[in-house]
């Protein structure tokens, strides 16, 4: 019952599969979402509102309503500094930016857009917010990133970052969501709006250099001098995303030996290879979507890619190819806490509940506290902001960490620094991150981890979200007694929207996707690949039985 891999996986996209961009953009402006249909309402998941204009889930009406919702939230919260806004390279990003600017300017919000009309990674927006707010107690800035992350080319996304620089928490997104849906239901009559031409001429919209400050500050979080001195040979694939125009300034400023394997930007993403299900998805943790860079592994000492808004990372080493995201997190954590002497002795490690138990073992080995949270980077914002977390990461290849002096860098995921960290590890230890993880495995045990997706209806996803240990009814998993069955994260006792079953040498967790008709099964074994597959099969069998029993 494991999700079947498409025969198209890892193959260059057939032209017949490419999104029709003119049709998509036309649908954005002409589509009329019906707020009586749940799938056509504004809905903020862990990374903002996402959807496609082709099914009336991400249209002009949504962005006008959400932007007005942000304006009203800002007024209620007393946020009156500039709003930093960035977009990625998805086809719907430019139209959505136009809609947002029309509303923000009409509401008197000071908006900072890229000075060259370019793309801006999610971590750069977080960095800009925190840099502006440093030392201020009033006139604070916030931000918006228009991106659906690694989702397919036909999707759009809109996420809000408050003055703490990280993803908005549920209280904030619920506030914006309620306002936006009320506006949709009222035919947008409460939306203040001017034309795009008026907005761009207004005193409220400002051109801003996002590239320069971020690039200049990188040496304070990554040992760029060590990378240059070592001569480590680096390959970089932006996957046609928002980081595409950041890498050349980084290479030139710091003199590192790096090659950008492609700087092509195309909203159809025709240069991608298909993901596991045959779809176009810029998932830098997928061996199928990363086939191009994996094929170049022997050309570089270490190479890496980012997803479309550059908040995720994919690390490829000459030694073992594409690293499992959890393996890289474990290696990165071990390296950082051994090579950042100015980090506080109390700086902890943050991880999501579905991330590898290898991180737990590394934390014990380092003598550091570990905090496990529900899925979503918002749970790490305060800890990174205060320095309580030295490192925070999640299994989906998203993480950030402190500056070298122990102060905050970003409070959102930063795929650029995680890629550069792989180069720093290689430069300073003379082993690449894959080899470092191998060494850790010899000492702490070798984990076999995998996440798979399985089809699920809306009803099944709802059942899974509220499933309890009693309803699941498992006493044993893959030949081992169950130690615990969790529905709340142990680090903060918050529900994580799914269920986790743990034994001595393995575990699985299941939770519904917020954007697709699938549920996600995360599983890990410290006894081998066969044991992992047994865990996966028993997990799916148990969940299928629950779905069948509940109709």
Keywords:
551 residues; alpha/beta; Alpha-D-Glucose-1,6-Bisphosphate, Chain A, domain 3; TATA-Binding Protein; 3 domains; seven-stranded mixed beta sheet; five-stranded mixed beta sheet; 23 strands; phosphopentomutase activity; magnesium; Phosphoglucomutase; A-D-PHexomutase_a/b/a-I
How would you characterize this protein structure?
Helix content is 35%, strand content 20%. It has 551 residues and is an alpha/beta fold. The chain folds into three domains: 31-208, 3-Layer(aba) Sandwich (Alpha-D-Glucose-1,6-Bisphosphate, Chain A, domain 3); 214-444, Alpha-D-Glucose-1,6-Bisphosphate, subunit A, domain 3 (Alpha-D-Glucose-1,6-Bisphosphate, Chain A, domain 3, 3-Layer(aba) Sandwich); 448-550, Alpha-D-phosphohexomutase, C-terminal domain (TATA-Binding Protein), CATH 3.30.310. It is built from 18 helices and 23 strands. It is globular. Residues 42-182, 213-317, 324-440 form the Alpha-D-phosphohexomutase alpha/beta/alpha domain. This is Phosphoglucomutase. GO terms for molecular function: magnesium ion binding; phosphoglucomutase activity; phosphopentomutase activity. InterPro entries: A-D-PHexomutase_a/b/a-I, A-D-PHexomutase_a/b/a-I/II/III, A-D-PHexomutase_a/b/a-II, A-D-PHexomutase_a/b/a-III, A-D-PHexomutase_C, A-D-PHexomutase_C_sf, A-D-PHexomutase_CS, Alpha-D-phosphohexomutase_SF.
């Amino acid at each position: 019952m494991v999700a079947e891999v498409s025969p198209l996986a890892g193959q260059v996209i057939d032209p017949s599969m490419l999104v029709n961009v003119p049709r998509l953009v036309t649908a954005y402006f002409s589509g009329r979402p019906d707020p009586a249909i749940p799938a056509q309402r504004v809905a903020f998941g862990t990374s903002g509102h996402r959807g496609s204009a082709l099914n009336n889930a991400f249209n002009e009406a949504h962005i006008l309503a959400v932007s007005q919702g942000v304006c009203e939230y800002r007024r209620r919260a007393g946020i009156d500094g500039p709003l930093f806004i960035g977009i990625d390279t998805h086809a719907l990003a430019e139209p959505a930016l136009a809609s947002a600017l029309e509303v923000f300017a009409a509401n008197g919000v000071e908006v900072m857009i890229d000075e060259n009309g370019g793309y801006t990674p999610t971590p750069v927006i977080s960095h800009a917010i925190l840099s502006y707010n440093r030392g201020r107690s009033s006139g604070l800035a916030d931000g918006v990133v228009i991106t659906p992350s690694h989702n397919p080319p036909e999707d759009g996304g809109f996420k809000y970052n408050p003055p703490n620089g990280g993803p908005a928490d549920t209280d904030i997104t619920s506030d914006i969501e309620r306002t936006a849906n009320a506006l949709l239901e009222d035919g947008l009559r409460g939306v203040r709006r001017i034309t795009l031409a008026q907005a761009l001429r207004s005193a409220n919209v400002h051109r801003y250099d996002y590239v320069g400050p971020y690039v200049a500050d990188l040496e304070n979080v990554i040992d760029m001098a060590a990378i240059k001195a070592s001569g480590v040979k680096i390959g970089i694939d932006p996957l046609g995303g928002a980081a595409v125009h950041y890498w050349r300034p980084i290479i030139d400023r710091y003199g590192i030996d790096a090659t950008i394997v492609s700087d092509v930007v195309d909203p159809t993403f025709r240069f991608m290879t298909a993901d596991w299900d045959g779809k176009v998805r810029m998932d830098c943790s997928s061996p199928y979507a990363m086939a191009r860079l994996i094929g170049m592994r022997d050309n570089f000492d270490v190479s890496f890619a980012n997803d479309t808004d550059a908040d995720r990372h994919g690390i490829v080493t000459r030694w073992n190819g594409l690293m499992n995201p959890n393996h890289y997190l474990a290696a990165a954590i071990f390296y950082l806490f051994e090579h950042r002497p100015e980090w506080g002795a109390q700086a902890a490690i943050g991880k999501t509940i579905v991330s590898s138990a290898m991180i737990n073992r590394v934390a014990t080995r380092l003598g550091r506290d570990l905090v496990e949270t529900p899925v979503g980077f918002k749970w790490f914002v305060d800890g990174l902001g205060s320095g309580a977390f030295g490192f925070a990461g999640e299994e989906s290849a998203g993480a950030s960490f402190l500056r070298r002096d122990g102060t905050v860098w970003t409070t959102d995921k930063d795929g650029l620094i995680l890629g550069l960290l792989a180069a720093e590890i290689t430069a300073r230890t003379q082993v690449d991150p894959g080899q470092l993880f191998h060494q850790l495995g010899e000492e702490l045990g070798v984990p076999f981890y995998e996440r798979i997706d399985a089809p699920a209806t809306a009803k099944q996803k709802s059942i899974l979200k509220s499933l309890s240990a009693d309803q699941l009814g498992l006493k044993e998993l893959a030949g081992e007694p169950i130690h615990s069955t969790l529905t709340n994260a142990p680090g903060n006792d918050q529900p994580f929207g799914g269920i986790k079953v743990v034994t001595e040498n393995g575990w699985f967790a299941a939770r519904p996707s917020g954007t697709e008709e699938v549920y996600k099964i995360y599983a890990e074994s410290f006894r081998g690949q066969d044991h992992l597959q047994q865990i996966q099969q028993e997990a799916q069998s148990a969940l299928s039985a629950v779905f069948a029993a509940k109709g």
